[in-house]
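User: I'm putting together a teaching handout on how multi-component assemblies are represented. Below are the sequence lines for each component of a complex, exactly as they appear in our records. Could you produce the 3D structure of the whole assembly as structure tokens, so the students can see both representations side by side? Please keep the chain order the same as the input.
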Amino acid sequence: MSDPTTQAGTPAPRSGDDKPRPGMSERSIGVLGDRKKARLDELARASAADRGGVSLVRDAARRLRRNPVAIIGAAIVGLFVLVAIFAPLIAPHDPVQRFDELTKNLTVDTIPGASGEFPLGSDPLGRDFLSRMIYGARQTLFVGVLATLIGLALGVLIGAIAGAFGGWVDVVLMRLTDVMLALPSLLLAITLVAMASRSSQWTVIFAVAIVSVPIFARLLRGSMLAQRESDHVLAARALGVKERNIVLRHMLPNSLTAVIVQATLTFAVAILDAAALSFLGLGDPDINRAEWGLMLGVDGQRYFEVRPELAYYPALAIIVVALGFTLLGEAMREAIDPKNRR
Amino acid sequence: MLRVIVRRLLQLVVTLIALSALIFIWLRNLPGGPVEALLGERATPERRALLTKALGYDQPILVQYGKFMQRVVTGDFGNSIRTGDPVTEVISRAFPATIELALAAMIIAVGLGVPLGYLAARWRGRSLDNLTIAGTLLGISIPIFFLGYLLKDVFTQNIHWFPPSGRLTTGLDNTNVTGFFVLDGLLTREFDASADALWHLILPAITLATIPLAVIVRITRASVLDVLNEDYVRTAEAKGLRHRTIRGRHILRNALLPVVTTIGLQTGALLSGAVLTEKVYNWGGIGTLITDSISGGRDYPVLQAIILLAALVFVVVNLLVDLSYAFIDPRVRVR
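Assistant: Of course. Below is the structure of the complete assembly, with chains in the same order as your input.
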């Protein structure tokens, strides 16, 4: 579990043979400046660095399969996705239906617990809690994936433009990301949600997405810049390939690895941030929506004294899923790190 | 050195101006603005127009921004829409509470994180290492407001070790000097107030420390592992230096640079976490102010100032961190 801040993955100098040389990295303590940026740039360079011989992706995939951490992470993520897809088949009840046998026992300070037909008992509105938990996987996946994808798309767009054009375009765009990075992420998300006239599921998704944009942008730009001078781009340029095609066919595809890894890690952050927004009362106001962050942040908080299970189960689900994505993401990062190539 | 500081400060000013312009324009162009917040949705158009004019929101946005900046440079951020108090006063009242909480959290995170990370690296692959790694992964995956409720439930409801919320037991009077309650008690020799404030501080500080602690442990561990493989460590061992000397002078000192960087970067996480932690423990700092400024109508002047302040704190802390390198590591030449 090496961390990129401690070692700069400086591209191995190319010698006669085209084989990358592992372990050619050196520590980067001499460089001052905004360390957050430097760290992202280093990461980008590390993943964009040496390639040649075996495909980096195939090589990384091979290493991933041997890493137990990656397998645990992938198993959690896989299970989560399966539950999300097959929620209607697994869930015993309709997640929004209010059951008379549950509502009749609801009072201000009692919420029915487990009973035969309802293994996890009731939620504060007399709905089957287990079914809501199962459907929650679906909504949580939806929020997380969409937030990550929007952040990824915007970040890649900004990063690719900056990396492809360079010059003043690069300077302006990177200054913009610096400004965004200078704000605490949750504070930025809060501000964004606060800007909407009324919150909805989309304001939450959008706010959480925007927070990750500068990270993706910086990462991609770093990789693109490293690509500019690489042999295959120089070769393409020498062959007279159009600049647009060089960017789209050569630089961009080869720069995406680091970004994809980051997306895996971002997913975990996205669902945690969405939960935090719900907790602050800035979440999705739809009472029918079963999303773990919402269940934990609203009902879990409000009824913590009455029935703490309403907080425990969604919290546990969020922790496990966030853990799964983090494990997978870190294993992927380790796998693509040129330092670990054998 | 001086030139670097001046250049970085200039950069800081540029960043803040850009940020202020962005925030200003965003906040002004939103539906559900302060006028609606003050008058309610069913106010007559006339009253609405009157208030819009009174608050100056009818003028062109550039003029509004110009006026805003003019006042900002003189330290005037306007008045809170919610309470009518000057924004600077509202913020300076809440600021020490958050700083006290954040500092306490950072002390816990660094004080516990660096030794833990170091020990984990030294005994790599052993049970302490595995346990530490598992702990850090859990730490970054747990929603911290949930952890806050959990700690609160266990330590204030089940076993009454700590007070559940607030900064001071009600009824206990303390003299306000700096706004840092623990320090105030010491300064005025009201030691009971100081102890009471510390008592209130512990749970929130632990809650807020979780994420920085996890991150610092991991960075320290990774960094120490890197240094362990360096040639100069092998050389030092070959020279037959005492292990304690090697550990202190060669390993730890070199490994700490990335850790110091991380501490700077965690300022942002602390501010984010403070919003959540303060709500759980009813702390009454900047975090509470943010939540109140949003839920009780959109209090733009306050929000605006807080965002600028947060960015300022973050950038300044990281500037200080960068400058501190030169002292920690003479090899680093400030550019």
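A couple of points students might notice: The CA atoms of residues 92 and 117 of chain A lie 9 Å apart. Chain A touches chain B through 55 residues (CB under 8 Å).
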